[in-house]
Amino acid sequence: MSxxxxxxxxxxxxxxxxxxxxxxxxxxMAAPGAVPDYEVLExxxxxxxxxxxxxxxxxxxxxRFGSFAKVLAAEPARLREVKGCGEAAVAVxxxxxxxxxxxxxxxxxxxxxxxxxxxxxxxxxxxxxNNPTEQFRILFLDRKNRVIEDEEQQRGTVDHTPVxxxxxxxxxxxxxxxxxxxxxxxxxxxxxxxLNHATTH
Length: 201
Description:
Blueprint: H1 10-30, H2 37-46, H3 55-65, H4 68-73, H5 76-80, H6 87-106, H7 117-128, E1 135-141, E2 147-155, H8 165-174, E3 179-185, E4 193-199
Antiparallel strand pairs: 1-2, 1-3, 3-4
Helix pairs in contact: 2-3, 6-7
């Protein structure tokens, strides 16, 4: 006689799965901050997999990349390497990150940098801190030190990115920018970002 537990009928397994989704939604709506990262990732992945189990994939992604933020920042090609992470899941994850960045960007654009410095730092951290390669981006400011444009200028390797001063100046003149803030990340130190301020006159 086998000691293994009999498999649940498919109908019962489906009911358990649907019940888990509903319980997770309820817990999240009641207290979003109390839900662990992998379960928030589960919720996001519901949109890519409306019927299947997303818990295993959510945990697998965090195990692979190390954190919730790094999952969202991961390159699509690397996300696809994780078993069960298809095109729909990749699209949902990248859309989630983009939504977050756009919310943070809205707190920065067209506002004086001195009045929104904390928001500017939060935006730079979110957009660059977990990138796997070095990135050089510029925030262009008007005469009132308001951010009028945010652009990625160059993307390099894990420890190097080229910067072309002539291109930086050309773009600043095109935008009639009075000053710029140059931002550069350090992938080997994920929470390290360098900001430099310069005037164009």
